[in-house]
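[09:14] KT: can someone run the structure on this one? pasting the chain below
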Amino acid sequence: MSSSQDPLYAGLGQAVRIATDLLAALIAGGGLGWVCDTYLFDSTPWGIIGGLVLGGVTGMRNAYRSVQRWTKT
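[09:31] RB: done, structure tokens below
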């Protein structure tokens, strides 16, 4: 069996994609929260906390949607 058809590598690729999606959502949410704290409002640290929570929720939703698209074999 070639490495491109190995279920281990397919599962590992899906896990890395989900982890990357979660991390990207957290970074984007935290960044937007920081921008809100620094430039728009003087609400430190509530903007960052809110952004991280929003990013975490968004990342979990994206992970759930990715898992729903997996094919059962």
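[09:33] KT: thanks! The radius of gyration is 17 Å.
[09:34] RB: yep, looked fine to me
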